[in-house]
Amino acid sequence: MTDLFRDKAADWDTRPVPVQISEGVFAALASNIALDPSLTVMDFGAGTGLVATKLAPRVAKVIAVDVSPAMLAQLAAKPELAGKAEIVCQDLLAAPLGRTVDLVVSAMAMHHVADTRALLRTLFAHLAPGGRIALADLDTEDGTFHPPATEGVFHHGFDRAALRAELVEIGFSDVRFVTACEIERDGRRYPVFLATALRPA
Ligand SMILES: C[S@@+](CC[C@H](N)C(=O)[O-])C[C@H]1O[C@@H](n2cnc3c(N)ncnc32)[C@H](O)[C@@H]1O
């Protein structure tokens, strides 16, 4: 598989937009999910660990899942994640973990997966009963968030009502949306939502 983030990994953590989003997403996560030192958390599309490093001190363990070896190499080098993160370079849709977690978080990875329904089903299957998801991504946008012809972008954001309906159909309950942050660029505004939902026990 081509690593679409190979050339972005080295300076990812210095880019203002990912930094702003990770801060907004973590703040929304901490306000809307009961983080607890007993939790095993999967960070789907963890990248360089911008969210995982904030999450790690509040939970037992973070399983950092991504398909980009370059992004995960940056994550693996972070001392604050040593002994706290398990790194999994794997496409979960093709090769599930084979175990469950208490919480799945994800920031800005969903729009890189073509089949959203298959992804949501996969995440549901990776949750222990009573577990939750907390998924952040762009609200529906006009296609200007990424530079033209960026490879691997399958969705120009998501419609909250449609995503809610998919989550409910898959079996999630207690579906809630909050706005985690809003990116302003070139006179345009790009809100980022955090969707939380429960896999019923
Ligand atoms: C926009 S970056 C966000 C990274 C990180 N969550 C952050 O907030 O900085 C999207 C990440 O999703 C990863 N990704 C794309 N498709 C994926 C897939 N099928 N499974 C796991 N990760 C994927 C990319 O490799 C990349 O690291």
Question: What keywords describe this structure?
Answer:
single chain, 7 strands, alpha/beta, seven-stranded mixed β-sheet, about 25% helix, binds S-adenosylmethionine, 5 helices
Give an account of the 3D structure.
The chain is an alpha/beta fold. Helix content is 25%, strand content 29%. It has helices spanning 16-32, 52-55, 69-76, 116-125, 160-170; strands spanning 40-44, 61-66, 85-89, 101-107, 127-138, 173-185, 188-198. It has a 7-stranded mixed sheet with strand order 3-2-1-4-5-7-6. The longest helix is centred in the N-terminal third of the chain and has 17 residues, at 16-32. The chain starts with 15 loop residues before the first helix and ends with a strand. Bound molecules: S-adenosylmethionine. Residues 5, 18, 21-22, 44-47, 50-51, 65-68, 71, 91, 107-109, 112-113 line the site of S-adenosylmethionine.
List the helices and strands and how they pair.
Blueprint: H1 16-32, E1 40-44, H2 52-55, E2 61-66, H3 69-76, E3 85-89, E4 101-107, H4 116-125, E5 127-138, H5 160-170, E6 173-185, E7 188-198
Parallel strand pairs: 1-2, 1-4, 2-3, 4-5
Antiparallel strand pairs: 5-7, 6-7
